[in-house]
Amino acid sequence: MNAQTSFPVFVTAGFLIWSSAFVMLYAAASAGCAFGWQMEMVGPLSLQRLVLLGVWSVHLAAFVPLGLALRRRGSPGDRRSVFADAPFWITGAAFAATVFIGVPGAVLTACA
């Protein structure tokens, strides 16, 4: 991939990961409540919390190869255009958003 074709990929990849995490966490929380996963214990954690943490962790881990690819592209500020830095900052915002949406599943009661 050359720099021109990779730009849209790098700009959208972070928020594609975030949107996948959002949908999958919501679906896992709903399924867990419907099937009573919060009552099943796996060690010190409920099955539901374990599933939510697993889904969240997989999505956070997906940022590692994306970050490495962005690093190969160059550091922010290396280029003359602000648009060249956009993938780095957009991916950072997507990572922060992914961290934010996973915290409730890690610390709050999922089913009322």
Q: Can you summarize this structure?
A:
This protein has 112 residues and is mainly alpha-helical.
Q: Main attributes?
A:
112 residues; mainly alpha; 2 strands
Number of strands: 2
Using only C-alpha atoms, the radius of gyration works out to: 17 Å
Number of domain units: 1
- Helix coverage percent of residues? over 70%
Report the uncertain regions: none
How would you sum up the global shape?
elongated
Strand order of the largest sheet: 1-2
What is the ordering of alpha helices and beta strands? HEEHH
As a percent range, the share of strand residues is under 5%
Structural category:
mainly alpha
How much is the average pLDDT? 89
The main β sheet shows up as: 2 strands, antiparallel
Number of helices: 3
End-to-end gap: 48 Å
Account of the 3D structure:
The protein has 112 residues and is mainly alpha-helical. The chain has one domain. It has helices spanning 3-35, 47-73, 82-107; strands at residues 41-42, 45-46. A two-stranded antiparallel ribbon has the order 1-2. The longest helix is centred in the first third of the chain and has 33 residues, at 3-35. The termini are far apart.
